Structures are given as C-alpha cells and as structure tokens.
Amino acid sequence: MTTAHQSDSPKARIDAGLKHLWYPVLASWQLGSTPRGITRLGTSLVLWRNSEGQIHAVEDRCPHRGARLSLGCASHDRIACWYHGVEVDAQGVVANVPAADHANMRGRKALISFPVEERQGAIFVWFGGGDAPPLRLPHEPTSQEFSGFLCTAVWRCNYRYAHDNLMDLMHGAYLHAVSHSMSGGEKRASMEVVDTPDGFIFRKTDQAELNFDWVEFMDLDAHWMRATVPYGPGAGPGGPFWIIGGVVPIDNNTCQVFFWRLRKVSGWQRAAWRFLYRTKLEARHWAVLEQDREVLEGLIPDARDHESLYSHDAGLVRLRRLLSRAAESELRLEAQAEHHAVSWSETRA
C-alpha cells in the first residue's frame, strides 16, 4: 500500500487516522465520469464509476511500473493504465496485459481494493481491511423529516484539530460572536459529559438553545459529531439548525471536513427553507466555517503539545482518550495478526 507514514505507535496512528472506520472521502459531485486519484489517511486511491454508477476504489498505482492508474481510462469494473495499458479490476486483480500474450502478473491480485458506499451525497470508504461492517449514518441526514445540504472543504491542519474544534463549545461565543446564529448566550458556562450508547454528549448545564450549547460524539464504525445551533425568525421556517459533521485525514497536515446542514421541515416550508438557504443563509454559514479554518490553520506547530487545558475542555479530553484507546486496540490486533501470519509461514516451511 502506498502510504506517507508509518503508524507504529498510538500517537502516530491517531495523527494519521484510525483505520478500522468508514470515512467520507469525497462529495458525490466530486467524482464524475473519469477516474479520480485522491490521498486519504496517507494512502493513494483511485476511484471510478462503472456504467451503472457504482463506485470502485483500489490503490492508485499500476502493478507493472507504478504509474498512477488515475491517469488512465476506466471501463465498467476495470481501469487501464495510461502508460502500458495494463488493466486492473475492482478487486485489485490484474485482468489483462494487452502488450504481451503471456505475463506472470495476469490473474494475480496485485492491489488492495477498498469497500465503497455512496450515501446522502457523499462517498465513503472503509480502510480497515477484511469485511466492512454496514455503514451507519446518524438519523437526521437519512430522515424524510429533515432537509438539508452537504458542504465540504479542505483544511490545512491535522484532522484532530477539526475534531477538537467541534468538541469546543465555548468558541461559538467568542470566535463566532457576530454570526447570525451564535451571537446570543453567555460567555461563561458550566459543562458536563454524559455517556450515550454510541459515545457521549458534551453540553452546557446552565444554558440551552442560545448558542453552540451541546455536541454529541458518535462511534458508528464511522466517527460523527452532531449538534444544533439556534435559528432566529429571519432564518425561515423549521426548528433549530442541525449540523452533522465528519472529517477524514488526507495526510498528517491536511484534512477534508464534511458538514450536513439540516432543518426539520416539510411541505411548502421545506421548499421555502431550501430557497432561503441557497439565496441568503449559505454564504453566512461559509463565513462561519472560514473563521474556524483560519484559526485552525494558524495554530502554532505542534499546538497540542503546548496546551494548558481547563474544565471547558473536558469534551475534547474525553474524545482524545477514546481515540487513544482505539489506536492501541488497532495496533494490538494488527500485531497479533502479523504474529499469526509469521507463525503460519514458519509452520509451512
């Protein structure tokens, strides 16, 4: 596998991205009719659609000479290298070597293939190897009661800072103090962490529905953040504004964030809300995201190693501990699998 790092310690694994997870890797509109090469979790992938629109993903390298398959042409479940025409199928097997009648690589599985799902306007990839568990999404993006939009952007920071930002409730009252949805509420708060079946909720105990007052972390074999922010009368029909967030590492210094922006609306109110969002509110939300991006991209190098945390940071501390335990578990299982593979090889020898 083509990687940009070695994840041989819990910290390195967390920084690079836990592997036994589904990740959103692209918005659906970002993959058209031609193959696309991307880097996610430091791994080079090529994605393409077959004639029915189904998406395939394998390592982005030709097993012949290492050229980028993403520069080639895709036809149904195969992709052909531009350099010498070698064809690889969706399982990573060399299906054809047109330049030679006999080639040892023909019929050999030469590349890692990745399970892919396309849901709610996004493309998800499983990086954990083996059989992927079902992709589970939070309720709101899949519910007919909600209507919304997916936005995505690339940020020049480690993905963990994007995680931390979503788990940081007080930044709404300061960084976003002049925004259309987070200008209310106090600039002081008491907070608590409450466990849930799939993760935990971090919330203010003395304030609700006035600012960014709660956030939930969910581990559904994909890591999700869920929150609401209040909406005033000028924001159209519907209840509070829901945000469902996910983030994927690109490499150790870059990530792509995904936010489903939703409201619970139906009938004519749904059409009114969607029109209002596109014509007026979307630009305001992008302005808020740009504030987050500017701060996170401007953090000092290795900012996490120079922090002085206090009680308002209990949510991100809980999240970091959870990620650390998950990284230790992944590395332990991988070491056991490697040991068993070596033992089996020695037995056969």
Unreliable stretches (pLDDT < 50, length at least 5) are 1-7
| The CATH class of the largest domain | Alpha Beta
Globally, the shape reads globular
Helix count, DSSP H or I runs of 4 or more residues: 6
Average pLDDT, to the nearest integer?
92
* Cα end-to-end separation: 26 Å
Order of helices and strands: HEEEEEEEEEEHEHHEEEEEEHH
Structure at a glance:
This protein is of the alpha+beta class and 349 residues long.
Task: Give keywords.
single chain, 349 residues, alpha+beta, Rieske Iron-sulfur Protein, Naphthalene 1,2-dioxygenase Alpha Subunit, Chain A, domain 1, seven-stranded antiparallel sheet, four-stranded antiparallel sheet, 29% strand, disordered N terminus
Write up what this structure looks like:
The chain has 349 residues and is α+β, with helices and mostly antiparallel strands. It folds into two domains: 21-126, Rieske Iron-sulfur Protein (3-layer Sandwich), CATH 2.102.10; 139-324, Naphthalene 1,2-dioxygenase Alpha Subunit, Chain A, domain 1 (Alpha-Beta Complex). The protein is built from six helices and 17 strands. The strands form four sheets. A seven-stranded antiparallel sheet has the order 11-17-16-15-14-13-12. A hairpin with a 5-residue loop joins β3 and β4 (55-59). The longest helix is centred in the last third of the chain and has 35 residues, at 314-348. The chain is globular and about 75 Å long. Mean pLDDT is 92; it is low at 1-7.
